[in-house]
Amino acid sequence: MNEPRDPQLFYFEDDGILPNNPKLPVVLYPGALSGKPEWAESVFNGCGWHNSWENGVFDYHHYHSNAHEVLGVTHGTILIKLGGENGSSFDLQAGDVIVLPAGTGHKRITASADFRIVGAYPEGMDYNTRLGNDGRREQAIEEIARVPLPKTDPVYGDKGPLLEHWQIR
User: Fold this and answer.
1) Which pLDDT does position 1 carry in this prediction?
2) Pairing label, strands 49-55, 77-82
3) Confidence (pLDDT) at 158
4) CA distance linking residue 117 with residue 41, whole number of Å
5) pLDDT at res. 4
6) Taking Cα atoms as reference points, which of 61, 55, 73 lies closest to residue 16?
7) Vertex 15 angle, CA 82 and 88, to 5°
8) Which of 50, 74, 94, 143 is the most buried (most CB within 10 A)?
9) What pLDDT shows up at residue 2?
């Protein structure tokens, strides 16, 4: 694992379809696991982010209203869109880690044939999958507001940059 670098922060506002997160930024750690991207799941689990999986990313906008999510690219590349149709696209490669606060819309635009990603949740929280048109918008907004801040950074543990940048204002 590399030493912490300055993470990149991105804010996404409610677009009327996807709530995104009104208070917390998406945090991107470029190359955080570039030395050993295949260790992503072990790193996340060791930092208290559990209920992990390895697979891909859906090719439609979705979000999790009841949990924050960390995604670590273990193989290949992905062009991922965050924040809804009017959001931003990011080219991620093996070793990159991105932390999505509850409510952040995301979808795969394209990915390499060998693309794999690991996801995990603080303290192993269960997560739901919501769509922008599922008729549960008000309930989702209430759920997002109740999701607690994580106690650890998924890559750097007790002293990671996420803890500094994810403070309720």
Assistant:
1) 55
2) unpaired
3) 94
4) 9
5) 58
6) 61
7) 25
8) 94
9) 55
CA distance 120 to 2: 19
Q: Quote the distance between the C-alpha of residue 10 and its chain's center.
A: 12
Six token digits for residue 18: 């996807």
Residue 54 is encoded by which pair of tokens? 């390895």
What is the mean pLDDT, run by run of 10 residues, along the chain of 169 residues? 76 95 96 92 97 96 97 98 96 97 98 98 96 92 97 95 84
- Number of residues in the chain: 169
**Close Cβ partners of 143 (under 8 Å, ≥ 6 residues apart):** 65, 66, 102
Burial call 103-134: b when 16+ CB within 10 Å, e when fewer = bbbbbbeebeeebbbbbbbbeebebeebbbee
**Residues 92-122: tens digit of each pLDDT:** 999 999 999 999 999 999 999 999 999 999 9
